Amino acid sequence: MRLQLCLHGVLARRVTNDQAVPFLAPGFGVHTVKESPTTASGLHRVACGNPQQWLYLLGDDGVVYSEVNNRFAGLDAAGVSAFRAFDAGAALEDLDGPRVVGGDASTSYEGLKAVYDLSRGIFPAENAPAQWPPFQSSKWSDTAIANIEIDGIPVSLQYPPGPLASLCQDYFRNCVITERPPRCCLSAQQAEDGWAIYVNGVEFLPSLQERQLGLGLLHAARSLLYAQGDYDVAFHAAMVAHDNFGIMLSAPRECGKSTLAVHLVTQGFDLLADEPALLNFDTWSIRSLHLPVSLKQESWPTLQQHWPALSGSPVHIRSDGTKIRLAHPPEERYSSRARPITHIVFPHYGAASGAQVESISPFRTLCFLNNGGMLFARHIARDGFENFLKFVCFTPAYRIHYSSLQEADRMLREIGCFAA
Predict the structure, then answer these.
(1) Domain range holding 179?
(2) Prediction pTM value
(3) 3-class DSSP state for residue 109?
(4) Given 228, 243, 258, which residue is the final one in a domain?
């Protein structure tokens, strides 16, 4: 059995399944213990040797959380055995041997060493998150200004007038105009080597071409939501809802989640978000952001049949040359309120993919959420972390592979994401 350690950082890092070295993030680890106290929420919690560090059992897997470090880390059953031995006092040399299957001796040792350090309350090093620059008011010459709100945050949006204005305004078309003093300034300005995006007067994205300005401002706005949004955990995910069903679609880039989200909107679902999806622990709900969905060129022909307005939308260019259009649902298809998550779905589109639906365990749900990307907003005490684990343990989660949107539609009906 392979040793696996999964940790979640500022933006979760990814690993492939054949890596023997654990993937590490600020805060989760797993332990198997037969006798353990049960919390009021039904979670199995065991105190570790380190103060304010606990093991939470997820079947044969589990999670280690440190309130001191504000970190959590995850181990599969093999890692749990090693962690349990180390927590009981075993030395690294006692377990250094053929206990980790796969990889060479150095990666096996590194994996054990990471688990040993975790048992001592030492989490893997991580890059410090970039500090959001403090607000400063600025007015560039020959610049149009719109004062808007993005999820309740007053923003001064500055962009060049004329033919580029439609590109720069595209992502913000549904944002509310405000008279409140801005807390942030996002601007697109010409520089010596092309164009650049600035955040509060600090260069954010340099050396852009004209048709990249709209996506540059999109990324600046999403970074603003991660930095200053009101949430407990933010996911790199889309969220749609219909009646009493709320589906969070989580996946890394290029897996098809945004295309699937727009398809579901054409089937009567309401759109809440297309990255980030901002979760509140108390309600397990995602807020509606009233922001559009970004779609790659490959998906346009299929979706334009149900979304004619898409053909007239501005064309943006990604840094890799991919053409993007932003899909703005009609106002009635934006949810007017936060909606609880009833299903977590990890979609994967492939033209030659075999149809497959798989119900996944809470531990694997954590791993997939980590791979897709998630970020905790602030220090969370043990109660908050246990609330997050409850959300993961009690929300049905599925992985689906499909080769067409109709196939995905059928799978989502099978797992109960549509009303009967």
Answers:
(1) 144-228
(2) 0.87
(3) helix
(4) 228
